[in-house]
């Protein structure tokens, strides 16, 4: 396409603009990348790229409310800077005005489809873990309102961080049996499968979250097998289990026998923490051929320091060794276009049994 050639679709600003749009970032963020892409202006070529690569490809069923909001802002932005708006954009906006009432928009908005694009840094090009296209795209059905009850249906920043950690250090997870607690939308499991963990089990205590997680695995061409009957060593299969921390039995926990345990944004509710620590201890406690034993990686936003300190005190009592890796671990930035996400707000902990360290 002439517009693409003229502007260079491999330019970082192009990748950031399209990735931000597909992730449903606020329209202002996408518009600011669009301006960077056009060298300071939203030129006709930039509008054509947005039209072909973002709007025309989007499914109204999933993104209608966002498309309507985005187009309104985009058109206003072009008009206010004296630019000429493409006819296609006006026509599309007019059709959304007619077909999408605000009521429909807010209902449709309760679940949306976001594409999270992990953009591999230049230095990883050509390595085994880097896809040929330079990006790994993950489709996620999620709720837009984080406070809407089913917290597991939103994407939380710690799972973005844990995913970046997995992609930065694939050797820690390749050929390992991985088990995640409080998996939410399933993003971490999709990344584990991408780096070829030998088997991946995701768990959550909330049934609607588990149902949504399975939809996401299927959207990303992974099958969700039956843990009792299907082979655990299938790279295209991710198992989902219901595991409420309060009622998980020791026998059940020991039966998973993972090499690596993961968790993102699970340290926030003080009343759940004794159960969570018991679950982590159970998963870390099993006879393991590897002398160093299983290890857990937990990513967490510290919203309340007392809650974190309570977790650390419970972990110490359970004879777990918690090491803060935040400062010593350089996690690559695969998500430079997500302006609302900041790696610095997240801490990464490594947890293992004291008896395995001594
Ligand atoms: C804040 S969300 C984080 C979800 C996901 N890990 C992420 O970072 O996007 C917390 C998750 O833990 C799950 N969870 C909370 N309390 C739980 C419990 N007592 N037992 C099992 N799962 C629980 C929730 O259902 C939810 O999926």
UniProtKB/TrEMBL annotation:
Coiled coil: none annotated. Gene3D superfamilies: Vaccinia Virus protein VP39. InterPro entries: Methyltransf_16, SAM-dependent_MTases_sf. GO terms for molecular function: protein methyltransferase activity. Pfam families: Methyltransf_16. This is FAM86 N-terminal domain-containing protein. The lineage of its organism: Eukaryota, Viridiplantae, Streptophyta, Embryophyta, Tracheophyta.
């Amino acid at each position: 396409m002439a517009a693409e050639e003229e502007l260079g679709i491999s330019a970082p600003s192009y990748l950031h603009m399209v990735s931000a749009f597909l992730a449903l970032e606020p329209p202002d963020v996408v518009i600011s990348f669009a301006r960077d892409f056009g060298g300071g202006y939203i030129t006709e070529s930039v509008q054509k790229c947005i039209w072909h690569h973002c709007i025309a490809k989007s499914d109204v069923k999933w993104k209608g409310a966002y498309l309507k909001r985005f187009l309104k802002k985009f058109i206003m932005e072009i008009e206010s800077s004296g630019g000429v708006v493409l006819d296609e954009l006006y026509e599309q906006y007019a059709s959304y005005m007619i077909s999408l009432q605000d009521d429909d928009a807010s209902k449709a908005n309760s679940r949306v489809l976001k594409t999270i694009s992990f953009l591999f840094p230049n230095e990883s090009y050509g390595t085994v873990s880097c896809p040929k296209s330079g990006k790994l795209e993950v489709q996620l059905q999620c709720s837009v309102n984080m406070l809407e009850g089913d917290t597991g249906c939103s994407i939380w920043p710690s799972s973005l961080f844990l995913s970046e950690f997995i992609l930065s250090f694939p050797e820690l997870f390749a050929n390992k049996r991985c088990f995640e607690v409080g998996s939410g939308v399933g993003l971490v499991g999709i990344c584990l499968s991408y780096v070829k963990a030998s088997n991946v089990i995701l768990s959550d205590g909330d049934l609607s979250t588990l149902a949504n997680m399975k939809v996401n695995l299927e959207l990303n061409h992974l099958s969700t097998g039956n843990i009792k009957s299907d082979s655990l060593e299938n790279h295209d299969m991710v198992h989902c289990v219901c595991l409420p921390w309060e009622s998980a039995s020791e026998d059940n926990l020991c039966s998973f026998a993972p090499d690596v345990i993961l968790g993102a944004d699970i340290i926030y509710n003080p009343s759940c923490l004794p159960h969570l620590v018991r679950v982590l201890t159970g998963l870390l406690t099993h006879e393991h051929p590897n002398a160093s034993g299983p290890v857990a990686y937990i990513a967490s936003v510290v919203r309340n320091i007392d809650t974190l300190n309570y977790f650390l005190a419970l972990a110490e009592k359970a004879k777990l060794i918690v090491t803060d890796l935040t400062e010593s671990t350089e996690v690559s930035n695969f998500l430079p276009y997500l302006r609302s996400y900041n790696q610095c707000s997240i801490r990464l902990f490594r947890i293992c049994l004291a008896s395995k360290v001594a």
